[in-house]
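This is your field. Have a critical look at both lines of this record:
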Amino acid sequence: MPNLDQLSAFIAAAETGSFSAAARRLKKAQSAVSNAIINLEIESGVDLFDRSSRSPTLTDQGEALLKSAYAVQSSHHDFVAKARALNLGEESELCIAIEQNISPQPVVELLIEFEQTFPFIELELLDPGINDVAALIRSGRAHIGLMLEQEEYPQGIKFKGIGHSRRMPVCSRNHPLAQLKQVSHSDLRQYRQLVMKSLDPEDTSHNRQVISPKLWYAESPFVIAELLSAGLGWAALHEAVVAEQLEKGILVVLSRTYQQDANLQGIDVVWTEQKALGKGGQWLLERLFKLKLG
């Protein structure tokens, strides 16, 4: 019967596209990963990978069995998580990741109550850039996250929508675009666009925001806001990031000919099904579910 190490090696190789990358993810020798997959193929009686090319690719049988492997791994995680939950009381530490585009103020109000209820839990707060929260949750670095919604989440990540955030095109009040009553795509393409970009080199979601051929990238929206304030280009940023500069008149919102209102993007609470939360984490998660942001 296949064991969990074999299934983990199979899943990692399928997701990363190579045995060496799977070994790095699992922190094992490549030979150990290769042997685990070979033994799994022997026990299952099918070839899971086509090794005729430089990089192994899933066979049709491998594609079909990958779904079953996910199911077995998920069931194991559920079992372990429930067992830990039964034995865990109050955890000693908790890590929360809040994406920089989201205002932390509603969470701060919850944490005041959290500190009074769980005074001995060591709390850590992270402020990752766009789309980096899910990776922190999956790796176990963070336990609970708040992030702008994604179309798809990594395997094992659970999520629940709790509101939305307004994203709008902005620039310095002294920028040439600010002198126009309305701006078109053609107008925006004439000037440098500043775009948020994830630290993950495989994340290409920023490409969907590109309008201008003149680009600068930054992981932090607050760095972009500072560059805009200095008159360097324009950008689409979330209200929580630029609210103060807008109020002071340092930045202005551009009125677009092709879209009248600001874009609304959902905000999700994310956590993992692979690690059970203790009492403090469950308490916080339940209260985050009740927030209505935006």
Q: What stands out?
A: Residues 85 and 276 are 6 Å apart (CA to CA). The mean pLDDT is 89. DSSP finds ten helices and eleven strands in the chain. The chain has three domains: 4-87, 93-156+273-289, 164-265.
